[in-house]
Amino acid sequence: MIDLHLIKALHTAAGPRTLDVRLTLPPGEVLALSGPSGAGKTTLLRLLAGLSRPDGGFLQVEGQVWYSHERGQWLPPQRRPLGFVFQDYALFPNMTVRENLAFAAEGQPQARQIIDGLLELLELTELAPRRPAALSGGQQQRVALARALARRPRLLLLDEPLSALDLATRLRLQQALADIHREFKLTTVLISHDPAEIARLATRVVELDLGQVVRVGPPVPVAALGTTVGGRVVAVLPGGHLRVQLGGSATLVEVPAPTGPPYAPGDELALSLAVVPARRD
Ligand SMILES: Nc1ncnc2c1ncn2[C@@H]1O[C@H](COP(=O)(O)OP(=O)(O)OP(=O)(O)O)[C@@H](O)[C@H]1O
């Protein structure tokens, strides 16, 4: 069980705002964070990881206090048993695949068995002697996942881990993530903009906007997804996102830019869209 109330001042493009999020995650939950660019999703993940320090509130993970403003307690990031996977893999370039995992597993009893098991689970055994530069993006992301799991974390944080990958690789890795969850039942917080990915992986979706929780609800089932609509790019946003006007309507959505050549305002594109039903808390 993870219980949190995290408060952090944000300096946003719209002026000062406050991230203020209260959540309770039952063990094994896969919680998806969604919401527009600048909503505070990455900030919330960094607060959970201890990479950024909250201004107030508390964070309790399986009975252990990781942060308490009231009690002046703060567990530094290296002492938090969590795995963090970023969009850009963040592997050690001078280490082989096996060494990347060994670094993370250091100090664990039976580190060697843990590493061998993860290499096999993520189909990396053949690639173990290679360095990251000799791997494809999808392979690097599998190594990043294996490395996060090698720490035997109690919480897995995934910051758009698959968004830089092509669709086929993304689908394969979504399956790998689903398999990993079945095997380890790790409580997971996943940032994703992709309703289909959320539907495949998450048990609940929290939508943030300007630092606040605006909706909480179950994901739409995969079977209900897949409506494809045409759109026109009206703005290219920081962080590789596009603001898109849907099919001649006044509706604007923000989506990660599909891989390929850069988009510019006026470009047409096809989007696979879903409306996620949600309830207000
Ligand atoms: N350390 C910080 N201190 C104060 N404000 C910050 C800090 N880091 C980011 N911000 C601001 O907080 C807002 C939320 O940023 P954050 O990166 O969490 O958004 P996001 O929802 O992850 O967006 P995206 O989908 O574009 O990655 C942004 O306006 C950002 O400029």
Protein described:
The protein has 281 residues and is α/β, with parallel strands linked by helices. The chain has two domains: 2-222, 3-Layer(aba) Sandwich (Rossmann fold), CATH 3.40.50; 226-273. The protein has six helices and 15 strands. The protein has helices at residues 41-49, 97-105, 111-121, 137-150, 167-184, 195-201, and strands at residues 2-12, 15-25, 30-34, 56-61, 64-68, 73-74, 82-85, 155-159, 187-191, 204-209, 212-217, 227-237, 241-246, 252-256, 268-273. The chain has a six-stranded mixed β-sheet with strand order 7-8-9-3-10-11, with helices on both faces. Strands 2-1-4-5-6 form a five-stranded antiparallel β-sheet, covered by helices on one side. Helix 3 packs antiparallel against helix 4 and helix 4 (137-150) packs parallel to helix 5 (167-184). The longest helix is centred in the middle third of the chain and has 18 residues, at 167-184. Residues 276-281 have low confidence and may be disordered. The protein binds adenosine-5'-triphosphate (ATP). Adenosine-5'-triphosphate binds next to strand 1 and helix 1.
